[in-house]
UniProtKB/TrEMBL annotation, chain A:
<dbReference type="GO" id="GO:0055085">
    <property type="term" value="P:transmembrane transport"/>
</dbReference>
<dbReference type="InterPro" id="IPR035906">
    <property type="entry name" value="MetI-like_sf"/>
</dbReference>
<feature type="transmembrane region" description="Helical">
    <location>
        <begin position="189"/>
        <end position="214"/>
    </location>
</feature>
<keyword id="KW-1133">Transmembrane helix</keyword>
<protein>
    <submittedName>
        <fullName>Sugar ABC transporter permease</fullName>
    </submittedName>
</protein>
<dbReference type="GO" id="GO:0005886">
    <property type="term" value="C:plasma membrane"/>
</dbReference>
<keyword id="KW-0472">Membrane</keyword>
<keyword id="KW-0812">Transmembrane</keyword>
<feature type="transmembrane region" description="Helical">
    <location>
        <begin position="92"/>
        <end position="115"/>
    </location>
</feature>
<keyword id="KW-0813">Transport</keyword>
<feature type="transmembrane region" description="Helical">
    <location>
        <begin position="235"/>
        <end position="257"/>
    </location>
</feature>
<dbReference type="InterPro" id="IPR051393">
    <property type="entry name" value="ABC_transporter_permease"/>
</dbReference>
<feature type="transmembrane region" description="Helical">
    <location>
        <begin position="127"/>
        <end position="146"/>
    </location>
</feature>
<comment type="similarity">
    <text>Belongs to the binding-protein-dependent transport system permease family.</text>
</comment>
<keyword id="KW-1003">Cell membrane</keyword>
<feature type="transmembrane region" description="Helical">
    <location>
        <begin position="28"/>
        <end position="50"/>
    </location>
</feature>
<dbReference type="Pfam" id="PF00528">
    <property type="entry name" value="BPD_transp_1"/>
</dbReference>
Length: 327, 447
């Protein structure tokens, strides 16, 4: 196991230079110097605006006219009390979980398929990666045509004589429909449509990551396991999967980031949906801020979204970090 | 050493990822503020001296579509003919049905760098906000000088007048309470366009029994059902009460609102079931194809019927006021005002442009291209198509009211109304809907 750890570390693309102590100072200075432009840009256009958004979320700026008077937590109370935001949180949890599972499982499956030394591997790789190159807005429009129950794929199902075609694209059903706060808790069926479109788009990305990971697993390891008598299943679960852990970390972090930011796909595809069954916080924030001009409440939604991202991701990273160290 | 390298690797990765994440969150809200950076460049050029025929003029709008930008160019052409020395900057901002433009405008107003003049809707939406903030100059003397007080109907001027002061020049007129119907379908079943809700339901029964969707509906954008609802409200409570509701003089717990909402929900039973996935033009498509008989939509739908669907007005498709709204015109009008922070040449140029905007030649060239009608009383009906002529005839004698979906009310109220509507059509809970409207009007004052 120790040997494998070493191999992964030295092959990791972000591994740092280890030797050459005497020149550290010059290198550090050079590093700082080259980082300055991006630090300034990030500082102004990312961190300053995060600070500004947070600041605005505590003001009374809820109309066109800027009103920077302190408003306490009232904007936060207002959004958490609203039916729409509560629905958003429910949808976000289910969307993120199923989106990540879908992309990871499908991505790994595709990567293993492509890794089987098949003919025209490059062709299949491109085919699976291609959806990522399409803009989310175009993806949304195409899938909305396909999944619309009266015009899309259902016509084909009809032609095959299937009477009870799926209606969940426009369904407002929520399973299992437990009453939480002012909303029904559970999985909104209409979310399936959005999940299909987004998993279709992003699983190629997971595949690309996993494919790189699979190729990086040293052949000697598998060879050694085979000599020890491991069968294909055992090989997969005891060698391949553990070796892919760092890749999975990267994939989870990137996919979660993209899932929490989903906006364009929804905007083009289902919109907030009837009773907000397909609404997500980013769409709500857009409507609140730029349609309703309730800037402070929009900023509160953005801030909650940011905190949620941090809550989900920081423990994951710390956990990964600890496990890596303990090795 | 091994552990250290790996740890550092993960740390670097995590920092990079967090950066990417935060970038995503930050920029979405940073839009409005970064707009001011752009605007600084464009307004830099508006500083020179002279009177009326020098310097520059910046016109701000969200008219970036083919027809609307061509139409806007007509005003600019006429202005440039009169004032060839002025450099005209067409600062149109695309996207989001005007919401991007409004965000950019808002940041420019805050930065004290307003454009020469800007597009806004008549009524108590953002126009009222700008007036309340003291960002607009009253135009009473300009109206007097141009004799516009009698050229526009008083009912329209009321929508741009606050505390006795007129703040904007109307350039076009559109109508929200139009019932579009398929003439051939109606003739086949011996129906006439319904003028009351009872007639509507009688017609709807007949159509439904013949397998035709009585009322085509779209709701992909979340505002289409709200148009239908507001027209039902107007048809139920009548002009006076509707006007009072829209201007915050009567509370939303009025029994008329409940009654109208119940009627609206009953009408929803006669619509196509997939309305949540349709855009407005697709709903009109159902009417054009004869799959559905009627649709309630603003009069921008006539462009779809004649141009896209290739139908003949009064032969293939017809129109009527929505049930119960005869004699009332739900007005959607683009108007232009004069920012109060303008001085010197900038102000003179902007005032001169407003004169072109209000002129009868300018409005004729503009509206005939844009597919809207001129709000001037002396506009010549023969310049417009069949629908435009009939709309103009109604406009000149009808009472005008505001409409919630097209920028005529406090945008915060409109967003809350549309959110409540999304819930209503699925929950059918009228009392919850009414109380949502009440609290929306409290949080977002209507006047």
């Amino acid at each position: 196991m120790n040997q494998s750890g070493q191999t992964t570390a030295s092959e990791s693309p972000v591994g740092v230079n280890k030797i050459r102590r005497p020149r550290v100072r010059v290198e550090t200075l050079w590093a700082i110097f080259t980082l300055i432009p991006s630090i300034i840009l990030l500082g102004v256009f990312v961190y300053y605006f995060i600070f500004w958004t947070g600041y605005v979320s505590f003001t009374k700026w809820n109309s066109f006219i800027q009103d920077m008077h302190f408003n306490g937590f009232r904007n936060y109370v207002a959004i958490f009390q609203s039916f729409r935001f509560q629905s958003d949180l429910r949808n976000m949890v289910f969307f993120t979980v199923f989106f990540m599972l879908g992309c990871l499982i499908l991505g790994l499956f595709l990567a293993i398929l492509v890794d089987q030394k098949i003919k025209a591997e490059g062709f299949f790789r491109s085919v699976f990666l291609y959806p990522m190159a399409i803009s989310a807005a175009a993806t949304g429009v195409i899938w909305s045509w396909l999944l619309n129950p009266t015009t899309g794929l259902n016509l084909i199902l009809h032609a095959f004589g299937i009477k009870h075609v799926p209606q969940w694209y426009l369904s407002t059903r929520i399973l299992p429909n437990v009453h939480i706060a002012s909303i029904s808790g559970g999985f909104p069926l209409a979310m399936i449509a959005v999940l299909i479109a987004s998993i279709w788009q992003w699983s190629g990305f997971a595949m690309a990551l996993y494919l790189a990971g699979l190729r990086a697993i040293p052949e000697e390891l598998k060879e050694a396991a085979r000599i020890d008598g491991a069968k294909a299943m055992r090989l997969f679960f005891s060698i391949t999967l553990p070796q892919l852990r760092p890749i999975t970390t990267t994939a989870v972090v990137m996919l979660m980031a993209s899932s929490l930011k989903v906006f364009d796909l929804l905007y083009a595809m289902t919109g907030p949906g009837a009773n907000f069954v397909t609404d997500l916080p980013a769409l709500n924030m857009f409507d609140t801020t730029f349609q309703g001009n309730e800037f402070a409440q929009g900023a509160a939604i953005a801030t909650v979204l940011l905190i949620l991202v941090l809550i989900f991701i920081i423990p994951y990273l710390i956990g990964t970090l600890r496990k890596e160290v303990s090795k | 050493m091994k552990g250290f390298t790996k740890k550092t690797g993960v740390a670097v990765l995590s920092v990079a990822t967090m950066g990417a994440l935060l970038a995503g969150c930050g920029t979405s809200n940073g839009n409005s503020t970064s707009g001011s950076g752009n605007s600084a460049n464009t307004t830099n050029s508006t500083t020179s001296t002279g009177t009326g025929n020098s310097g520059s003029l910046e016109i701000f709008s969200w008219w970036t579509g083919v027809a609307s930008s061509k139409a806007l160019q007509q005003f600019i052409n006429q202005y440039e003919k009169q004032y060839p020395g002025v450099k005209v900057v067409n600062a149109a901002v695309a996207g989001g049905a005007g919401s991007n433009a409004k965000a950019v405008l808002s940041s420019r107003m805050e930065a004290g760098k307003p454009p020469g003049t800007f597009q806004v809707h008549a009524g108590n939406g953002s126009l009222l906000s700008w007036v309340q903030a003291g960002d607009m100059t009253p135009l009473n003397s300009l109206y007097k000088q141009m004799g516009w007080n009698t050229k526009f109907p008083q009912s329209l001027l009321n929508l741009v007048t606050f505390n006795g002061k007129i703040y904007a020049v109307p350039v076009d007129m559109q109508r929200d309470n139009v019932l579009w119907y398929n003439k051939k379908v109606f003739a086949k079943y011996n129906l006439t366009p319904p003028t009351t809700f009872n007639q509507f339901f009688t017609d709807a029964q007949v159509l439904k029994s013949h397998g035709i969707t009585p009322l085509a509906l779209a709701n992909h954008g979340n505002w289409e059902t709200t148009i239908l609802w507001s027209d039902v409200l107007l048809g139920t409570v009548g002009y006076t009460k509707y006007d009072q509701l829209m201007s915050g003089k009567v509370g939303w717990n009025d029994p008329g609102v409940t009654q109208a909402t119940n009627t609206f929900l009953k009408m929803m039973q006669y619509t196509n079931s997939d309305y949540n996935s349709l855009h407005w033009a697709q709903a009109d498509g159902l009417v054009a194809q004869g799959k559905a008989a009627m649709n309630v939509q603003g009069d921008w739908a006539q462009g779809y019927f004649t141009t896209t669907a290739g139908l003949k007005p009064n032969v293939d498709f017809g129109w009527a006021p929505t049930p119960g709204t005869q004699g009332v015109f739900a007005a959607v009008s683009d108007v232009f005002g004069l920012p109060s922070k303008l001085t010197g040449t900038d102000k003179t140029n902007a005032e001169n442009f407003l004169k072109v905007l209000g002129s009868s030649e300018g409005q004729k060239a503009f509206n005939t291209l844009k597919g809207t009608i001129s709000p001037r009383l002396d506009a010549n009906p023969s310049d417009y198509n069949a629908y435009g002529q009939s709309a103009m005839a109604s406009y000149k004698k009808d009472k005008l009211v505001l409409t919630p979906t097209q920028g005529g009310l406090n945008p915060g109220f409109t967003t809350a109304l549309q959110n409540a509507m999304t819930q209503l059509i699925s929950s059918q809970n009228v009392s919850q809907f009414v109380s949502a409207l009440q609290s929306a009007a409290q949080q977002n004052p209507l006047s």
